[in-house]
Amino acid sequence: MKRFGVSLEDNLAKELDGLVKKHRLPNRSQAIRFLIRKHTVEEKWSGNEEVGGCIVLVYDHHKRDLVNKSMDVQHQYQHLILCIQHVHLDHDNCLETVMVKGRASELRALADRLIALKGIKHGELVMTATH
Ligand code: NI
Q1: Which of 49, 95, 97, 123 has its C-alpha lying 20 to 30 A from 69's C-alpha?
Q2: What ranges do the domains of the chain cover?
Q3: How many whole angstroms from 100 Cα to the centroid of ligand 1?
């Protein structure tokens, strides 16, 4: 563990305290760790490094066409997919999470293909890093 003093202008210190409050972080140190990790993840994704992530999809399971198309896309990109979790939200809606690992550009391409399928009600790519 390294310890160091940080000097911040008043407005930046105020923003840091706002971040602590917003994310219910225990202190400023935790807020700085949060920002460094966020920055690291963003760098890895923009540098097209190997990263991890999760694609979240909500769709109407009565649309069989969509389910088939989604399966086709997932098979095309099977080398990136670690696991898929499917839950039935209610009578009509399914929630699927597709956990992925690979080059950032490939994961983005897979997420774009899935989220763009006709009938997807909500889709989002959650980006993280592998290490
Ligand atoms: Ni379902």
Answers
A1: 49
A2: 10-46, 50-129
A3: 20
